[in-house]
């Protein structure tokens, strides 16, 4: 093997491996069969590449639910030297078109279930559907298994969100994905079956589960979409020993009726991000297996893995080798947090700062076609995460929010500008500002302040939002603040910081989403909302 091991190298090492590689429904592929399917896609991608102008990036968008085809395409791109762009199907309209254009997709491959979403791309980019004759003809080739493998290249572009209103496409090279697989931080074994129902356009599904399974030659069990009711039957059917999750997934699973079969599975551990401490503990009680959390992002520079010594609700202690610290706006290290006996932070103004990896710039592969955003992350060789935290004297990090104006709901990051533009269409709304407020369990909830008058009709507004074709599936505001005048900065801009700080603690009228309607956030509703924070040990996030 070359000095740098790539994902293509790991795949070729499995070419003659007859152990099970992939389970999907009632179908199964051995590793040798899996690699053969990847080689077919690699040849098809080379055929597409031959038709492109020499200056056109070899970028192939994938817009589909989880499927074997998605993984075959990732493997094919690794073997051919192409780049897979994981198109986010929760985006709509002009925002979706912009995502595809910004990443220079020469072709978008669309799964059958995404035809309605893909219609927004008509006239903007060439699309081919996996159930079409065109696609079948594209794959009707004999793979040249003797073809030389590519050197290291950008294998994946994984979208995230920032403060500018446009998502950023994080680069993940073939070598980086291979390194993640070989590092195998979860200690996966060849006899492990990793169950994944998280979307493959997110790093969680590919990096935390598929890459290490490829590295050890284990088995990857895949579901098209997450299903809380389908979790236990799938785990039983596939004989899963590991599962990964993001956000509220655990909460949804635990909302299912408890069954005695939950403690009779082959599961031995789970891993994910952003589940509450209460949900992790309840899952372990019901299923009898530990669940491990970690802090990180698709950029892959700052990582903190929880262990048994991590206090409840904390991020954990970073590995000293990563060079992580917490700094203020001037780049100076923040002092340790001073806490009362009940955990109240006394010196938040001094102790809270941004998580930075000293010298971490070399580990960041950058954002595609966004030099400005990349430069914002890298300063004098250091990597600035955009996340806020404070550190207790024992070295434990505690999450304190985000520096940029983004919102994270169900592990989906999005910026506020597209949502604000939609809300501004509603008659009677003179101004709008959308922002994140804490969620009682994990991540954020969407809150929007509307400058309007007494004629505002909450029922009509709720119906209006539900009818908007370009409304992202996670964008609907959970809370509304109705005001006659926004707080303004000295430059006459809306003071979003003060809106976010106040959240629902305001003399203005506040409404909360209840099913398909908005109802007043009265004293009882506010008490119930804040009791949910206490239930999940997140009372420190309730606005003062």
UniProtKB/TrEMBL annotation:
InterPro entries: AMP-bd_C_sf (IPR045851), AMP-binding_CS (IPR020845), AMP-dep_synth/lig_dom (IPR000873), ANL_N_sf (IPR042099). Residues 13-368 form the AMP-dependent synthetase/ligase domain. One of its GO terms (molecular function) is long-chain fatty acid transmembrane transporter activity. The keyword Transport does not apply. The keyword Nucleotide-binding applies. Keywords: ATP-binding, Ligase, Nucleotide-binding. GO terms for cellular component: plasma membrane. One of its GO terms (biological process) is long-chain fatty acid import into cell. Belongs to the ATP-dependent AMP-binding enzyme family. PANTHER family: FATTY ACID TRANSPORT PROTEIN 3, ISOFORM A (PTHR43107:SF15), LONG-CHAIN FATTY ACID TRANSPORT PROTEIN (PTHR43107). This is Long-chain-fatty-acid--CoA ligase. It comes from Gordonia malaquae NBRC 108250. The lineage of its organism: Bacteria, Bacillati, Actinomycetota, Actinomycetes, Mycobacteriales. The gene is fadD.
């Amino acid at each position: 093997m070359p000095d740098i091991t790539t994902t293509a190298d790991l795949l070729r090492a499995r070419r003659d491996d007859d152990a099970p590689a992939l389970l999907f429904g009632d179908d199964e592929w051995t590793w040798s069969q899996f690699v053969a399917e990847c080689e077919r896609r690699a040849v098809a991608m080379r055929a597409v590449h031959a038709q492109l102008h020499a200056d056109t990036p070899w970028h192939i968008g994938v817009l589909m639910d989880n499927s074997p085809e998605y993984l075959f395409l990732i493997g094919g791109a690794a073997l051919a030297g192409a780049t897979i762009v994981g198109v986010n199907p929760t985006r709509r309209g002009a925002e979706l078109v912009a995502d595809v254009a910004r990443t220079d997709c020469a072709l978008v491959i669309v799964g059958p279930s995404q035809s309605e979403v893909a219609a927004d791309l008509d006239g903007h980019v060439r699309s081919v559907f996996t159930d079409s004759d065109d696609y079948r003809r594209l794959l009707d080739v004999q793979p040249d298994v003797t073809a030389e493998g590519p050197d290291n290249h950008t294998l994946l572009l994984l979208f995230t969100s920032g403060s500018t209103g446009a998502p950023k496409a994080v680069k993940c090279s073939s070598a980086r994905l291979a390194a993640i697989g070989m590092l195998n931080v979860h200690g996966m074994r060849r006899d492990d079956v990793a169950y994944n129902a998280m979307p493959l356009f997110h790093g969680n599904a590919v990096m935390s589960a598929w890459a290490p399974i490829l590295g050890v030659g284990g088995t990857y069990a895949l579901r098209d979409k997450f299903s809380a009711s389908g979790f236990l039957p799938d785990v039983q059917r596939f004989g899963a020993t590991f599962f990964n999750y993001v956000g509220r997934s655990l909460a949804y699973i635990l909302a299912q009726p408890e069954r005695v079969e939950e403690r009779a599975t082959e599961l031995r551990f789970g891993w994910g991000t952003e589940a509450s401490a209460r949900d992790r503990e309840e899952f372990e009680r019901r299923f009898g297996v530990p669940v491990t959390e970690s802090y990180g992002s698709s950029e892959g520079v700052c990582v903190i893995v929880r262990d048994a010594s991590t206090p409840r609700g904390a991020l954990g202690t970073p590995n000293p080798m990563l060079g992580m610290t917490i700094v203020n706006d001037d780049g100076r290290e923040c002092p340790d947090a001073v806490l009362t006996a009940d955990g109240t932070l006394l010196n938040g103004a001094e102790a809270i700062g941004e998580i930075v990896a000293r010298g971490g710039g070399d580990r960041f592969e950058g954002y595609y076609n966004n030099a400005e955003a990349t430069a914002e992350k890298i300063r004098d060789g250091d990597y600035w995460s955009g996340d806020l935290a404070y550190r207790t004297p024992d070295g434990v990090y505690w999450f304190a929010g985000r520096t940029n104006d983004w919102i994270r709901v169900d592990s989906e990051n999005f910026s506020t500008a597209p949502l604000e533009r939609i809300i501004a269409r509603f008659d009677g709304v003179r101004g709008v500002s959308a922002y994140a407020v804490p969620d009682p369990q994990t991540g954020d909830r969407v809150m929007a302040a509307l400058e309007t008058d007494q004629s505002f009709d909450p029922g009509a507004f709720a119906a209006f939002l539900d009818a908007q074709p370009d409304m992202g599936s996670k964008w609907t505001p959970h809370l509304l603040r109705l005001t006659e005048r926004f707080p303004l900065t000295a430059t006459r801009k809306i003071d979003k910081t003060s809106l976010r700080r106040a959240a629902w603690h305001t003399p203005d009228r506040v409404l909360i989403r209840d099913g398909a309607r908005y109802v007043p956030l009265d004293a009882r509703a506010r008490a119930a909302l804040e009791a949910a924070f206490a239930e999940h040990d997140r009372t420190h996030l309730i606005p003062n």
